[in-house]
Structures are given as structure tokens and as C-alpha cells.
TrEMBL record:
WD repeats: 87-119, 188-230, 237-269, 293-318
Keyword DNA-binding included in the entry's annotation: no
Keywords: Repeat, WD repeat
Protein known as: WD repeat-containing protein 70
Repeat in keyword set: yes
PANTHER family in UniProt: GASTRULATION DEFECTIVE PROTEIN 1-RELATED, WD REPEAT-CONTAINING PROTEIN 70
Region annotated Disordered, chain positions: 65-98, 450-489, 524-563
GO CC aspect terms: nucleus; site of double-strand break
Compositional bias segments (type: Acidic residues): 80-93, 542-554
């Protein structure tokens, strides 16, 4: 070996061949373990979240899914562009989020009036919605929520009538509109002004609740759309009407809470709609919109997100003063959410920003100490909606620039977004065609001029607009006839006989042959008249065809003598 090394050094090359690479497997495993530990350093209580974001943008892929309901539109995202807009007047805000109890489908709504359906099991990495529709025409969507069974969706928009859709977007129910000329809102059948919020009862699948600018909170029954079930009327300290901006049920469904524009939080017993059970008159700054109320899973703590840039928690057993308070949480929207973690140890909310003034954040607070445990910079726009699903252990976020994002942990989360991120994007089928270059020579002689190429697509489009060419042929009518069309023949005996007579194609042009057609059969087999006159009837003698008759037949018609 030393001789080979000397020869290679003298001749100017390093060796006679490639050496086999060696791997230290223990070192590789140790490096992989350290990398995994470093990636798992972001701890949220007992929940570990990896900063993996699923952004739902628009595309023009083919839509798949169940039959299309009325009001279907073709696009599949809430934003036609990715520019960040002003948080207060941007038209691309995702203002509503809803996830069914099983976590299989996500529904989003925005200021662009569209409601979009997302199926995690049916999506791939392209992340396209399978359904997009406008159930409330030109009214922005304010709230979307699945019922406890997941078979219907409550749609609260900017009009006075809430709608209930099924899982595929078809209309199930529309609440009645009340009489706006009646002063006492308890005597009307429904809301008379714009809706602000709504939610389903956590125990009764047919009951839901809405609040409106007419100063009432109403409960409804899914089986009775003609009138509300009960009415709750928030009142100020002076007894005047105040507008509720958000409403929610307690976890057991026995209490109804509403946040009002005068800064109060009022809670009623569900079965007693006259007087409030709990009433805090200075919960938030008067004149601001309380954007969200959320009960904890143990049913003791109530969290309120105010328009005065605060987040507060309340003990409903002692409802006079807040238990904890967090300030400096900018809020420009009347539907900014706050929610509890599935283990009730964390409280999460979003912050708002103006254009080019920072990033919207998702802020996590410890419920006991109310310290900021963690922050996630979501995007350069405001964080409007947030939803922490207890079964999936995933956080859904709706932003002010038209994005719906999902945060999940590879270990702690289950299903949901993890079903679609592992699927590769489907390749589009492309048809390859060979085309011949066409040279335009307008001044060439006719014998050298090429025929102008004609596109069949334009002709097909013209034919499609032509009512005659694009008319589908009507099938033959069976039976007596319908729709103004008469059948080939009716169902009666007379019509059948008439049809057979019309189909008789025998030629009776020669009357002699027509008379003698049955003469031979009558002479051989006499049955009717011949036996009675057999002995007295003379033998018939028929004239024979003469040559004159044949010549007369050959003469043209205009030469024959007129009688």
C-alpha cells in the first residue's frame, strides 16, 4: 500500500479509485434527536405547537363536491389579491369561522358576502374550497356556527333575518322579519334591524339565538320559523334600550349572556326573560363594541373581549369586578374572538393592526396568572377570528387580508389540517397538440394565398348561443300526448283504426283489377251470394281489353276528348 501511495504522489493524482464513505450512525441519530428537541421548544402549557401555517388562497381549479345549491359562485377564496388592507374598512376580512363538532369541515365567511366550505379530508396541498355561495346576497357575513350535531349551519349576516343551511349549503330555514313600526320589540315576530351575532344551544340541537341592533336577544326553534321562541331585552341603568353586540350560551345552556354597547354585560336565566340574573354595568368602556363573550369549559369563568383594547375574565359567582385584566390588545373589529384552550388553562385572542403598522398577533394568556405565555405573529393584517377546536387540538384563525390559517402540532393534534398537508398537489392534465405556423400574406396572389385558419371554438360558442342549434331534440311522446304535443296515435280504438287506414298503401288506380281482385276466390269457394243464385243466375261475361282502349290510355291527357 505504501508503494501505491508513493506512485500516486509522483504521478500527480490522489489514488487509483474512490474510497467507500463511512457513516457514524450514532452521531446522526444524536443530531436528529437534538434537532427535534430544538423544534419542540415552543411550549403552550401542555400543548406544543409547531409554527406550520396553512393559508387558504384563491385558485381556479375545478370544483368537486355535492350538487350545487342556489346562489353558487365560481371562486374559492375570500380575497382576489394578497395586499394588506386597512383593518377598519378592508373588504377582504374573514369575519366568520365555523368548524363542525367532528372537525371534518371548516366554513368561512367574509365581507365579500361569500360563504366557503372546506373539507379537510378532500383537500390536498392546493387547499381549495369545494363550495362557495352567497346565502344572504349583498350582506356581509358576521357569524357562522355548526350545530351540536353538525348537520346544519347558522348564518348571521348584516340583514335582519338569520338563515340555517345544511352541510352542503342548501337553505333549511330563514327567520321571519319583524314589524319595524311596532314600538315594543317583544310584540314582533322577529328582528327588525341588522343582526350582530348568533350561536347554537350547546345541549338542544333545534334551538339557536341571535342579537340585533333593534335592542333584543331572541331565541328560535328550528322547526318554527314564523316566530321567535323568547325575547330578552337589555336595558341601561336608566331603563333605556341598549344594543347587544355579542351573545352566547353558558356551557350547560342554562344562562344567556350578552355584551352591550353601553359597556355592560347582562346575563339572564334562559327560562326567565324579564329580569337579569347577573348584571355588570361597567364591564367595558361605554360606547365601545364588546366583540366576544366566552364561557370556560368548567362554566365558572366568563371571558370578555372589549372594544376598549382589553381582555377580562369574570367569575359569575361574584360578577361585580373582573378577576383578571389584560390591556394593550388593539381591537378594531366588532367580532374579534377570544376562546379557552381545551384544558381550560389558556386563553387566546387576536390583535388588530392598521395598514403598514406591524403584524396581527395571536396572544396566549395563562388563565390563572394572566401572564402572556406565547405570541404568534400571524400576518401583516389584523387577527379577526380565532377558534380552538377541542377534538382536533388545532387553532383556526381568520385574518383581515382574506386568509384562513390553521395552526397544528404534529404530535398533539389529530386529523383536521394534517389530512390535507400530506397529500401532494394534483397535476393538471395538459393536452399536447401540434400546430402549424400560419403566415399572413395579405398582398399575395390568390394562387399562393393560404386559407385562413378558422377556430372551431368560436363557432361552437356561436352555435351555443343560437336557440335553434343548441335546442335539445325532444323525445317522442308516448301515450295520449302532453305539453301541447299530440302523440303519434291516441289510446282509443278509433284512433288506432284511423292510423291503420292511413297506413293502407294499396294501389287502386285500375278499377277493373280492383273489382276482379277477389273474383277467383269467390268462384272457387262460394259462400255468401253465389249459392242462392246458383241455378238461376246466368254466367257473367266480361268485356275483354281492346286495342283502342290501350291506345287511348297511351295518349297524353291533354289530347283526350273532353265530354
Amino acid at each position: 500500500m505504501s508503494g501505491d501511495r508513493d506512485i500516486s504522489s509522483v504521478m500527480g493524482f490522489s489514488g487509483f479509485g474512490k474510497k467507500a464513505r463511512t457513516f457514524d450512525l450514532d452521531a446522526i441519530f444524536e443530531q436528529t434527536r437534538r434537532t427535534a428537541i430544538e423544534r419542540s421548544q415552543h411550549v403552550l402549557g401542555k400543548f406544543i405547537y409547531k409554527n406550520v401555517i396553512i393559508s387558504c388562497l384563491d385558485d381556479d381549479d375545478d370544483l368537486v363536491g355535492p350538487p350545487l345549491p342556489p346562489g353558487y359562485t365560481g371562486s374559492t377564496a375570500h380575497s382576489d389579491d394578497d395586499d394588506e388592507g386597512d383593518a377598519q374598512d378592508d373588504g377582504d376580512d374573514v369575519s366568520a369561522l365555523g368548524l363542525d363538532p367532528s372537525g371534518a369541515r371548516l366554513v368561512t365567511g367574509g365581507y365579500d358576502y361569500d360563504v366557503r366550505f372546506w373539507d379537510f379530508a378532500g383537500m390536498d396541498q392546493s387547499l381549495q374550497a369545494f363550495r362557495s355561495l352567497q346565502p344572504c346576497e349583498c350582506h356581509q357575513i358576521k357569524s357562522l356556527q355548526y350545530s351540536i350535531t353538525g348537520d346544519v349551519i347558522l348564518v348571521v349576516s348584516g340583514n335582519a333575518q338569520a338563515k340555517v343551511l345544511d352541510r352542503d349549503g342548501f337553505n333549511v330555514m330563514e327567520c321571519v322579519k319583524g314589524d319595524q313600526y311596532i314600538v315594543d320589540m317583544a310584540n314582533t315576530k322577529g328582528h327588525t334591524a341588522m343582526l350582530n351575532s348568533g350561536c347554537w344551544h350547546p345541549k338542544i340541537k333545534e334551538e339557536f339565538m341571535t342579537c340585533s341592533n333593534d335592542g333584543t336577544v331572541r331565541t328560535w326553534d328550528l322547526n318554527s320559523e314564523k316566530k321567535h321562541k323568547s325575547v330578552f331585552k337589555p336595558r341601561s341603568f336608566q331603563g333605556k334600550k341598549v344594543i347587544p353586540t355579542c351573545c352566547t350560551y353558558s356551557r350547560d345552556g342554562k344562562l344567556i349572556a350578552a355584551g352591550c354597547q353601553d359597556g355592560t354585560i347582562q346575563i339572564w336565566d334562559r327560562n326567565l326573560s324579564v329580569h337579569t340574573k347577573f348584571h355588570c354595568r361597567q364591564a367595558h368602556t361605554p360606547g365601545t363594541d364588546t366583540s366576544c363573550l366566552s364561557f370556560s369549559y368548567d362554566g365558572v369563568t366568563l371571558a370578555s373581549r372589549g372594544g376598549d383594547d382589553t381582555l377580562k375574565t369574570w367569575d359569575i359567582r361574584n360578577f361585580r369586578n373582573p378577576v383578571k385584566l389584560a390591556t394593550g390588545l388593539t381591537n378594531y373589529f366588532s367580532m374579534t374572538d377570544c376562546c379557552f384552550s381545551p384544558d381550560d388553562k389558556l386563553l387566546v385572542t387576536g390583535t388588530s393592526v392598521k395598514k403598514d403598522e406591524g403584524n396581527g398577533k395571536l396572544v396566549f394568556f395563562d388563565r390563572a396568572s394572566f401572564e402572556r405565555v406565547y405570541e404568534i405573529e400571524v400576518s401583516s393584517a389584523s387577527v379577526v377570528r380565532c377558534l380552538w377546536h377541542p377534538k382536533l387540538n388545532q387553532i383556526m384563525v381568520g385574518t383581515g387580508n382574506g386568509l384562513a390559517k390553521v395552526y397544528y402540532d404534529p404530535v398533539k393534534s389529530h386529523r383536521g389540517a394534517m389530512l390535507c398537508v400530506v397529500k401532494s398537489k394534483r397535476k393538471e392534465k395538459q393536452a399536447e397538440t401540434l400546430t402549424q405556423d400560419y403566415i399572413i400574406t395579405p398582398h399575395a396572389l390568390p394562387m399562393f394565398r393560404e386559407a385562413r385558419q378558422r377556430s372551431t371554438r368560436k363557432q361552437l360558442e356561436k352555435d351555443r348561443l343560437d336557440p335553434k342549434k343548441s335546442h335539445k331534440p325532444e323525445p317522442p311522446v308516448s301515450g295520449p300526448g302532453r305539453g301541447g304535443r299530440v302523440a303519434a296515435h291516441g289510446g282509443t280504438l278509433s284512433s288506432f283504426i284511423v292510423k291503420n287506414i292511413a297506413l293502407d298503401k294499396t294501389d287502386d288506380s285500375n278499377p277493373r283489377e280492383a273489382i276482379l281482385r277477389h273474383a277467383k276466390e269467390a268462384s272457387e269457394n262460394p259462400y255468401w251470394v253465389a249459392p242462392a243464385y246458383e241455378h238461376t243466375q246466368p254466367e257473367p261475361v266480361f268485356a275483354e281489353d281492346s286495342e283502342e282502349d290501350e291506345e287511348a290510355e297511351k295518349e297524353p291527357e291533354w289530347k283526350k276528348r273532353k265530354i
